[in-house]
Every structure is written in structure tokens, then in C-alpha cells.
Write the C-alpha cells for this entry.
Amino acid sequence: MINFLLNDSLISLSDVRPNLTVLEYLREHARLTGTKEGCASGDCGACTVVLAELNTNTQQLEYKSINSCITLVAALHGKQLITIEHLANGKNLHPVQQAMVDHHASQCGFCTPGFVMSMFALYQAQHNKNAKCINRETVEHALSGNLCRCTGYRPILDAALDACQQYQPDKFANNAKQTIHNLATIENGAEVTGICIPESKQALQQAKQDYPKARLVAGGTDIALESTQQYKDFDSVIYLGRVKELNRLEETDTGLVIGAGVTYQMLLPLLVKHFPETEELIQRLGSMPVRNQGTMGGNIANASPIGDTPPLLIALNARIVVDNGTQQRSLPAVGFFTGYRQTQMHDDEWIDSIEIPYRQPNTLLRAYKVSKRFEDDISTVCAVFSVLLNNGKVQQVNVGFGGVAATPMSLNKLGIALHNLEWSSQETLKKGQHILGNAFAPITDVRASAEYRQTLLSNLWHRFWLETHQIATQSVVVRVN
Amino acid sequence: MRKLITPKSVSETQNRTDQNLPKDKLSVAHESAIQHVTGSASYIDDLPEPQNTRYAAIGLTQHAKGKITRLNLDPVRQAPGVIDVIDINDIPGHTDIGPVFKGDPILADHEIRFHGQALFAVLANSVREARQAALLAHYELEEETPILSVEHAHAENTFVRPVHTMSRGDHETAIQNSEHQISGSLTIGGQEHLYLEGQAALAIPSDNSSLIVYSSTQHPSEVQKLIAEVLDWRLHKVNVEIRRMGGAFGGKETQAAQWACLASVLAVRNQCAVKLRLPRAQDMQVTGKRHPFSNHYQVGFNKEGVIQGSNIHINGNCGHSPDLSDAIVDRAMFHCDNAYYLGDCYIEGHRCQTNQVSHTAFRGFGGPQGMIMGEAIIDRIARVIGEDPLTVRKRNYYNEQRNQTHYGMEVEHFSLPQLVQQLEEKSDYWTRREAITVFNNTNPFVKKGLALTPVKFGISFTAQLLNQAGALVHIYTDGSLQVNHGGTEMGQGLHTKIQQIAAHEFGLPLNYIEVTATRTDKVPNTSPTAASSGTDLNGKAVQNACITLKQRLADFISEKYEVSAQSVTFENGKVIAGALSFEFAKLIQDAYVNRIQLSANGFYKTPKIHYARSTGKGRPFFYFANGAAVSEVTLDTLTGEYKVERVDILHDVGNSINPSLDIGQIEGGFIQGMGWLTTEELVWDEKGRLLSQNPATYKIPAIGDLPKIFNVELFDQANPEDTIYHSKAVGEPPFMLAISVWSAIKDAISSLSNYQIDPDLHPPATPEAVLKAIQSIASKTDSKDKNEASQ
């Protein structure tokens, strides 16, 4: 059984196809049509719903916006699924709904339920924090996955600021105790034909043996598209979100350990603490709902040449730990990707975790993403540069690139060519530009031409040099923010 | 005697509307706002389904051009859950659903016209089974080389409609005799509508061999007509209803019909309710876009930069069929002057036929692709004579001497110079210009740009017959009203404005007025809700019906109480005749008892308009809507990335009926226009396949693209023409304010040449296109420097 709360009602699903999405469940099974399908690919946010889940550390409910169109029902187990129909308290609109009305923030209304739900998650986040930290930037992040074609967003932004900057306990806060109690009655080890929800590493190993054809699903933000866009049916799925070992997030003596099931949004604060230069890249990875669901482990396992975390991991000298339940292997991120959507993993393995060593002092680091649209877009080129200096001279260069070849790429010859050169010298700039401009043979596709990608590689190196070299004059702006 | 309801006094309710109240009181919320935010507003796919509902899907061609030699639909028929499969041979009536001209087969006949053309339709027990089955067809074909560009169409001489020209005087001599001559070209990208609610229809067989069809359409009457034709039925057997669309923007003007027709054919064949809803990627492949254009100009001007003569060639990529392209290319031609007098001129407009989906209406309807030519010309003139583009714009405005458009319409009541003057001051244009010059001089890698561009947009359908509207108003015996009209609600707030108009006419609170779903059996033979005309046409028709009813009531009072009918007024829920005052509902009951007809229809047709295609002269527009925008951008010369920092808009909506809704249209139109000119790039491969066919690869603006500073104000001036309450249409005109963003990006790039060169920046100005323009201007500047050094 997959057991969850649909708004306030306890639901048990036993007979569903493994690739049934939450959106399909809501609209076709539960006949709740307030949640809309705009694209069925996680790109428009019309289907946004909120999942509430107990944080066992704080003993409080955490509310996360997700794209119901690319979330499989397996992910609902043990959670509260909140939909647009449930927000108002009788005839009283929820503050985020009221603000949307007051600011004239709906026109055609089709995207509106999704916006309201994203805003609702942001509103709830204020329960635990100081409401003053809501500003335009946090609203933009929270609503980055919701497209509106009518309003141009200004009234929506105003509504979000208006509602979320003045938190008042709502019916969800008042009912929290009851909700926590109801969630606690849901037991582990749910099993439905074709859907396996292991709670531990051992159970995962067993599930892999029982369902050899099963697809492993963490956030599911990529795999769900096979069902919703190509109409493929899955024999079975193993949902990884509840495997304890995969959800660890640790600062060890030597570096960070990020469990493969940790979502982007969960790992962001720790990553930014140690590598603040990577914040923009992670904040621009997908949208808030995608970051609430998607995992670094999933991004690596998919081995997409345009994923944004592999270039980062390559440049940070990370290692990827794979596991089959009895044996673990630790593999460097460099070389992990062997071909288009292929890795060094064996069929019986899964990704356990990612290990990122702490940086050495005097490391210059930048992570750049160029795309047509700033938010929620796939990289035309992703470039991560890490240069270790000693007395101003280049000691080591680690770089990772996405969008330039069939796999995420590194580039050893850059380090060799620049070794011991003065970082702030023109020579470092020119040599790097020359090497990068000729290093790869990218393709022309829907996002950009091969020539543009090549030029970008060279010019991003230029930007990196401008931003980090010592003679950079402070009054000159080198980047559009 | 029948018992009548106990009427409530209006004073018990609030929420009244009155044109004499301050403007913010008119800014009532969208009539569906509460339903929107609670998820209770129903769209086609949300409607309760009849018990016997089945689901349809369509199968698409995988080639752009060729003749089908064999089609095998057996694997589709044999797939699980499949009930019925139809191809074009199964259509009982007309097989061509072209809206104005023929050319749009409902399903592909033996000839494939574009990649992704609907080839067959399948009906199954579930949506998923239908869509899975639709992937299983096989066909064989004699493949032919597709025509994919305007240039290729010209070379092969393929056009969907004949060329049209407009001219004045001797343009060649005027250009030759000018101090300066310039020429240039602009390829202008198309645009996907990306309405959030995709195409959808639900057809339900009804009593006595009739059909009720719920269709997400801007043009229910045309859907009704086409369904009747494909079924070989009379129109009176088909009712089409639409309560609201989840966005349309022109994409549901003609192109909603195909899906409603297919659902209807399947519903009648199988005697069950049929729903056909296109999945997003399919929607983006099978429906037309804003037309891509490829335009050229040659202009002569004097040393002040004033245009003396122009020769402009407009080439619309229409796709495979005419659809609405004749009128769209015409509108591009009508607007290539924008706000400027073109001197002696010649405008030639081609309707190029290509093997693409049939491109269609989209907010602005060709106007934007014409208007941008006017602005391109001005920008280039400014660089030649070394003046600020705004100065050159002002010198070229229509004025008292130069006051006739190239199609012979006098530009009356031209408020743009005054409006621009106000905006210039509000936005601090010249101070910011100086600050930007300083910034650009000190920053080698990041550059700023600024531009002010105006909009003058003609209001009326250029097809005269469409400028008519009908309405139906009922008063019930509790004093509440039902209002129906031919317009459709797609988010623009038309029903809200209509509600306000009816409430104002009767002096009643808004909650006395219910605007009901658009239905072909309430108001027949309607025009599409398009051309920004919704409120202008339907508002007047509703007012007309209200006036009829008020006259009947006044006559009744006059007769009964022996007062003058002229003295009767309707205000604050009361009907007042001299010293007499009646509660509205009580008067209505009295009128009912005395057998006064409490239902009326209304009608309106736009006056003054005419256009003769044979001469290319006339007055196609009732009036012009005006506006202007100032945009400031910052761009990165290393990557071509940029950000729109600040936008100031002043826009003329006449007397606003609802300022909040109008500002919503302006802001939304602007951002949509900005998307068209910046991130929204349609990419087809060499086989004619659309690669940007989902929102992962086709990028409309997101919330972070909203300019940090975005000031929008209404220009306060009544429309001198007799429109509804002297308001002005607002749907399309603000879209073109976004040309200021494109112009500002060019301004920033031009700074690299010290404003000597106007860069070639073909929209959409993606970061890649911007970097290309930067590289091109850098090489031109280099060679210019070298030439100057060698002299």
C-alpha cells in the first residue's frame, strides 16, 4: 500500500501502475481538477502541489512545492499531499490566495493554482524563520518554476511579497499536531505490485534482486518524462527517497558526503557554506519544485551531457561512491562518465553518495552557466573553473564542462599548459582562451550553435580571469547580475 | 397568481460601480479571480465528463513534404483499448476546414504538407491508451524536398495568396534625391503562443441528432460552422460553448477548430462523448505560430534624418496554407510606418508558402513584424546622422503636413508626441542617457543601452464584416440580470468589463450582473474575439441591449405615472423619474406583471471604416491606440547575456473602464513581446521538424525576467471617437512596446562603435544572437579604424 494524506484524508493506494504520476492520480482518480496540466514535463508549474513531511530533527512539518506531473505516486508514501482545493478555510481564502485576488494577479487563471501552491510553500517556510528574509530574490527562487503567459509576473511578485512578508498562523499551523499524528500512523515497508519503497540499504539490495527490471527513482524529474512524454510503461520502480543511508548529509574531516537521495534544495546550504561560488549554479538548476525533488545522485546516474552537477563535481575533484549492497566502490568523477548517458556503474549497483573534498586555500573557483533564459533552463554551456595558486602562480587547474560533448568533460591540458604561470599575467589569459577555444567539438542543437559554444568556453575563461586576477579594477563591472 | 420572489433592496449590497467614482474604484477584480485562486474555475479538461466519455488522440506525419503511397493503421486499431480510428476518408462532409480560404485538410490527404501534420485520429477508453496507440501507425511516402524559408519560397514561386501593394508618389525619385540612402534586412522570428491551457474540445451527442461542443476557442461561431460542414449537418444542429480559455493570444482563433471537428466526428460515429486534448509537445507541433518574417527596406532621408522616400518589402512565412495570412501580412504592411511618415513610398507584401505548420494569428497579428521595420529604419538613420534615436523618432512623427498614412488614412487626434514628451520626463531619459555614456566609457566588458520606442496601432478588423457584435440581456424578476455576448473570455477580463458596463447602464451593483458562457445558441454569427476588439464591439452591443431595456422601462413608467420617459434615470439601484423613485427589483416586478418584455438583444457595427484592396487606400481603422516605452538593458560583451534593468511605459487606453485590468494587459503584453524579441526562439531542422517543441527548449519569460524597475502608467485622455465610454482597445498594442528592449540592446552594442554603427541584430536577440552582433560590430569597427588609419 502507498499510504498518504490527501489534504486531510488518509488514502491507501494498492492497485496503480508503477509510472502513475501524482497529477494523473489527482485529476483522473481523485477527480480533483484544480491542479492543472500545462506541459506534463515539469517545465511550466501549472501542476504544482505541496508535500508536507515531518522533519524528524525539528519535529515540525516541512512544506515543499513539487511538480505533480513528474512525481510518481510512490513518492507520496508517508507524506501529506496538499492541493489547491484545500487551501481556503471555508469561505475565507488563504492569505496567499487573497493577495493574488487583491493584486489582480490572475488573468486566464490556468497557471494560478500552481503559483498559489508555490507561494503557499514559501508562506509556510516563514513559519520557522524570520519573515523579514522574504524579498524579491527569495520570491523569484520560489516561483522560478511557474510560468505565466498573461500577467508578466509583476502582480504575482507583489502578491507573494505582500502575503509572505506578514506570516499569520493559518489552518495548517493550527492543524499541524493532528497532521503529524496522522502521518505517524503510516507504517514503513509499503509495497504495491510493481512499486517498491525500501527503507534501508538491505531492503534496497533485496528489492533489486526481486525486481531486476525495476527502474530506480529518486526525484524522478528525468525518468518520469519517459512516461509522460513518450508514453512508455515501466515494469516496476524502486523509489529511493526513503532509504535512510541515501539521505545522509555530512561534513567529515576531509570533505562533504552527500547521500545520493539528498535533494538539491537540501544540499544547497552545505554546499554554499564551503563553496559559495557555486550558489548561482545550483539556484539556476531547474526550478524550485525540481530542486525540491531532484537529487545529485539522479543527475549523475542519468549521465546527461547537459546536467549541471557533473561539471561541478569534476572541477571539485569529487568521488562517486557506488554500492551493490555488499561492496562499495569509490570512483573519481573525472572518468565516471564513459559515453552518452553511460557510466562506470554495473547493473547491480546504485549510487550511494558523492564525496567532495574541502577546497585548499588559495583556490579560485567560479561556476558559470549560460542559457537562453536565466532561470529554469538547460545549459547551453556550463563551465566550472577551479585554479589553485601558490604565490600567485598556477599550481593546479581543475575544470568541468557541460554541453560541449557527449559526456560531461574535464580538460587536463589546461593545467599542464598553465603550470607555474603568473595567474594575473596576460599569458595565462591568452593561453587559456586559446586552449579552450579549440578543446572540444561541440554540436549545434536547439539551444545554440557549435561556434557559440566554442566562443563561450574561451570567453568564460576570460570572465573567470577578469573576476579573479589581482589587477582587476574594482570600479569596472565585468558581469551582468 | 404566480408568486414572485421577494426583491432585495440594493442598499443591502455593496460593490457598486459608477463611472463617476475615482478610478481605483473601477479596478474591480477579474470576475473569476476567486475561482482562479481556489482552483474551481473550470477549463475544458476540468468539466464533469458524461458517463460514456471516450478519449481521442491524433497521429502525426514524420515528414515535411511528400505523397503518401501507403497508410497502415491496423496496428493502431489493434492496440489495447482502441475503439475507433479515422483518417480523411472517414469524414462525412467537407474535408477542408480552411477558415477564410481553402487549404487546410482536417487530416492529411495523400499529400503531406508539413512535419507533424495530423494524419489520423484514434478513439480509446483512456487518454493514455489513445496516445500510445497513436504512435503505432506506419506509412510509406514519396518524399519531396520541403520549402522551409521565405527565400526558398520566393525562389520556387510558392505563395498562399497573391502579392498586395500600397504606395504613394514616386518613391524611387524621392530616395535618389535624398541626401542619404540606406538599406537593410531583418529576419524576424516567429513565436509560439504557449497558452498554458493547450488545445482541447469535448463533443457530446445530444437530443435529436445534435451536438453540444465545449471548445477552447476564441471563435465559437466558426467552430460551429466547421463542425456542421465536416459532419454535413446544418448549423442549427451544433452548439458550441466556451466559458473561459486558459490563454489563447490568437492561437485559438482559427486553430482550435480542427480538434473540435475531430472530436465531433468521432462522437457522432460512436455515439459517445469524446474529449480531445493535445499534449503540449504535440500542441506545439500541430498548431501555427506567429509568422516569421524576412523584410527589407531602402530609405532616403535628409540631413536631419527625416524620411523622404521608402521602399519596404514584407515577406511573411505563412506555412503551408492561407489560414489568416492574407490579413496578417496586410497588417504588417499597414504598420511598417509605426508612428512615422514614410514620404513617397512603396510597400510590397508577400505571403510565402512553406512546408511549415500554417502560421496564424498572434497578438498584434503581423503588426509587430511590420512595426519593427519602422523602428529598425529610425535606429539606422540615427547612427548615420549621429543623433540620438529619440531625436530622430520625433522628427519623423506624423504631423500636420505629413499626416496621411501610406494607405491613405488621415492620422487624426495624434497624441503620441504629447505622450512621448510626458514619458521622456517621467523616465528621466536624457539624464540616464548621460549616465549610460559615462558608464560605457569606463566599462570595457559590460555595456548599457537605452531606447524609447512608440506604438501607433490601428484598431478594427481589417476585414470590415467582422466589425459587428451581438448581445443578449435578460432581466429576471428579482432584478438580477444575465448578460451574454459574442466575445470570449481568455483572461483579458472581457467579461469583467462587460459586467461593469451592464452594471453602469442600470446603476446596479456588479453582483446583480451575471455574464454567462459564450454560446452559439445565445448570440449567433459572432466574430472571433481578436484584433483587440472584444470590449469595443461587445461592450457597445451590450450597451445597446441595455438601452433598449431601459427605454421599455422608461416608457412603462411614463405611461403609468404620466411622467416624461426622458426624465427616467437608473442609479444606485433605483429607478428615478422626477420625484418618483423605485427600487429596481420592484419596478422590474411591476413591469413583468404589466407584460413588459424584459429581455433584449443588442447589436453594434463599427462606423467610418472602409478599405479598397484594389487601390490599397482607405480607412481600415476606426482609431489608433498609442503608447511608448523606455527600456534600459545591461549586457555582457563576453557572452551576449543581458538583463532588462528598467522599463517605463505610458500607454493610452482612453477612458479606462478598469485601470487594473488595463495595466494587466499592458504589463502582460509587454513581457510577452519581450519574450518574442529575446529568449523565444523557434528552431526547425533541415528536414522541417520543429526542435523547440516543448517548454524545456522553448523559453518564454520567467519571473526573473521581469525588469527590476517596471513603471506602467495610463495616459489620461478620452478617446475622441465614439467608443464605449470613450475607452480604447488594449489587448494587442502594448505587445509592441517591447520593441524598445530590442532597440536598447542594439543601443548597447552600438556603443562599441561609439554609436557609429547600427548593429545587425535579428530577433529573437538570444545571447547567441547578441554575441554574434557584438562580434560583427567589433570587426566592422576594426576595419573602419584601419581604413581611417590608412587614409
